[in-house]
Specification:
0% strand; 194 residues
Length: 194
């Protein structure tokens, strides 16, 4: 510290006061809740859009084959029909990437929250009359998950199964495969009918 310059003030530890730490914890909890709501909204939005695109694609191709199969030879119509599966594939991919990004934000808030739990003393061991085998106030997964750094925790969290992200990736990966199959079907029909 420069003792010659009176304008420079000594730094204080913001977290030395538990009130500040608790206030920060409340703020982070509110932000984490906002991110969770945003994740669900994105998942619903992209699932609705891709489901509609899939339904339109299948219905348009089925209707064409049922009612006017000779239109498959039309020079423009198969291209127009191919647009729907292509958009389905693109929107599914964007949805997966978008949800991954939002999920990473959520995990980052979890990391900060876990650090604040420790700073507030919530990770100390206790003896409880109820739930006698529990040693901590928090669920043990928040205490016992030991990682060297937050990046490792984020990578492992993104790979976890039975999460909204894993189900979303599976569903929209399936939609992408269906989109590719519809494109192949259009090409095969075009070649078969010509």
């Amino acid at each position: 510290m420069d003792t010659q310059n009176p304008e420079i003030k000594p730094q204080t530890n913001f977290f030395a006061d538990s009130q500040n730490t608790f206030a920060l914890f409340k703020e982070i909890s509110i932000n984490a809740r906002f991110v969770i709501d945003k994740i669900w909204a994105n998942a619903k939005f992209f699932t609705t859009i891709t489901s509609a695109l899939l339904t339109l694609s299948v219905a348009a191709i089925a209707s064409l084959l049922k009612d006017k199969p000779d239109l498959i030879l039309h020079p423009i119509l198969p291209i127009l029909l191919a647009i729907l599966p292509i958009i389905l594939i693109i929107v599914s991919y964007i949805g997966i990437k978008n949800l991954e990004r939002e999920y990473i934000r959520f995990i980052q808030w979890v990391i900060v929250t876990q650090k604040l739990y420790e700073m507030l003393g919530a990770t100390q061991q206790f003896s409880f009359k109820k739930y006698k085998n529990d040693r901590y106030l928090l669920p043990e997964q928040f205490i016992l998950d030991q990682y060297e750094n937050s990046e490792e925790f984020i990578k492992n969290s993104l790979k976890k199964k039975n999460t909204l992200l894993s189900y979303f990736k599976w569903l929209h990966g399936f939609y992408m495969v269906i989109g590719f199959l519809l494109l192949i079907l259009l090409l095969l029909l075009r070649g078969y009918c010509s």
